[in-house]
């Protein structure tokens, strides 16, 4: 099966002039040129054009596209990479749709939209951190789960989180040790709370990685200023860390 340059241009939504330019710069040559001087393109050429157009839509310039195609050994590997890029773009757009829908629903209900939800998909500022620590699937699962909640469900979850933080602060103020039964009961409650977040090792039932995660979260509550302030001061944050890590060592 072959197509003339006019047929291919019409199907691809570009001009014949563009196809001729791609030929001149070495991006896409015709499969053959007929005796009449017409350019013809076969299925392999069309597949290459598809990839060129995909990379153009991703904002790549022609020299960069040429470099990708020149370095590529296996066409199927290249197509798989494009599928992964497109799926990532689709996920980003889905998150943006959910964010805008959240804003609309909140405004229609006379409520104030939450900034972190409104900007989800536009600025997922924890994505790199979560992906590097727990993997892409963990981020996507947790992110989709959170942004799939209604406004009321998100508020209920935040209230539960605030109640847990308040319980930790009260326990730390009381002067009990991090290894005491009340502190360890709070640690168990905290781990159970984490297990309700899809994509986390605790939700997956992965004991070894769950222990690693609880240790890492305990350190994060002390070391990361974004979280340390939740527990009022460094001493109380250290109490939470010590209780969680003791629980992970002895009861998980």
From TrEMBL:
Matching SUPFAM superfamilies: Antibiotic binding domain of TipA-like multidrug resistance regulators (SSF89082), Putative DNA-binding domain (SSF46955)
| Entry keyword Coiled coil | yes
Annotated GO molecular function terms are: DNA binding; DNA-binding transcription factor activity
Coiled-coil stretches are: 76-103
UniProt keyword Ion transport present: no
What protein am I looking at? DNA-binding transcriptional MerR regulator
Which taxonomic lineage does the organism of this UniProt entry have? Bacteria, Bacillati, Actinomycetota, Actinomycetes, Pseudonocardiales
One Pfam annotation reads TipAS
Family matches, as InterPro entries: DNA-bd_dom_put_sf, MerR-type_HTH_dom, MerR_fam, TipA-like_antibiotic-bd, TipAS_dom
Which segments constitute the HTH merR-type domain? 1-71
Keywords (alphabetical) are: Coiled coil, DNA-binding
SMART domains per record: HTH_MERR (SM00422)
- PANTHER family hit by this protein: MERR FAMILY REGULATORY PROTEIN, REDOX-CYCLING DRUG-SENSING TRANSCRIPTIONAL ACTIVATOR SOXR
